[in-house]
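Budget justification, computational time. The allocation requested in the original proposal was used primarily to generate structure tokens for proteins on the priority list. As evidence of use, we reproduce two of the resulting records. The first is shown immediately below.
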Amino acid sequence: MKLHIRVLGAGPDIVLLHGWGLHSGVWESVAQRLAADFRVTLIDLPGHGRSGMPDQDYTLPTLVTAIARVAPPRAVWMGWSLGGMAALQLAIEHPGQVAGLILVAAMPRFVRAPDWHAMEAEMLETFARALEEDYQGALQRFLALQTLGGAHGAETLRALRELAARSQPPHPDALRGGLAILRSADLRPRLVEIACPVQLILGKGDRLVPVAAGAAMKERLPGMRLHVIKGAGHAPFLSHPDEFLEAVNEFLHE
């Protein structure tokens, strides 16, 4: 399997991982601005964008092993949604490769549990069924869901659709595998193994990752910096780029 990567700028390393169903181009504006001070590595997740599919089953450890092979030896990792869960797993399995974590609308567990605020499992089950019936329609509905609850929902959805169209559609098996990860993975017991600085950025109106989950995560990682962007949904780096980058830069330069 060959992963597509692109490198911008020069300086300390930062790696950006995108979310389910998209590609690294969603970070374009953020990457260009960070490249003024950092060497930015953009990676298409397996089966997304220009990256090939893994020879093994599509699991979180498989993703992380593949990503770790092509990434800089030590970097700050920024991951959005599924990409954030991959970054968390990488920090656990390859701590020497991770100087810091910036999690964007990402959680160690994405599905609700009796002691955990998150999305209902049925939501992901619905998308899994929809993928088998209407692949393109399911992708479009997921893009729309990410912008609900935000103050600039229509504009953010338009931007997401335009960005998604800049690369080939993700492989159906990558979508199935990614949903399986989001449904089943639970990294909460291993958060105690995270040794690097962590920042979590959430949108206050996010319908997929509620702010209450961020507060619960901070209880498990007391040193974590939590920044909530009012008026943002699941893609705060698109809807509120200036506030998003201000928070990121405060973390990177502290």
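The second record produced under the same allocation is shown here.
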Amino acid sequence: MSARLLIVLMNTDPRHVEELGAPFYHAAVAAAMDYKVDVVCTAAAGKLMMKGVAEAIQIKPGHPKTVYDWIKEAHDHGAKLWACPANLELYDMSEDDLIPECSGMMGAAAMMQDIMDGECRVLTY
């Protein structure tokens, strides 16, 4: 049985706020259950690793909890969050633009190796 969960956000678009809670909630729950959790944000979801983006998005209008609060909750439970290196160029960012909860970069090759090694379960959003 695998003790590691890899969550890949690549079809999740920050413009569709209803898609943003579940991945980080699942990451927080799995990390709280003592699984090793990595969350990779790529494509449009890569914007969520940029300072100020997730802070400005509320999943439920009128509710004070932001997407950034969900990210912090997952991080506080032990999930590691990763940005895609290609997103830096795509969105004219540098590593200085990433939120403090981001552990750094996870490129496509590292992600594929993790998946193909069979040492983890994968959820995609």
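A brief technical remark on that second record: The radius of gyration is 14 Å.
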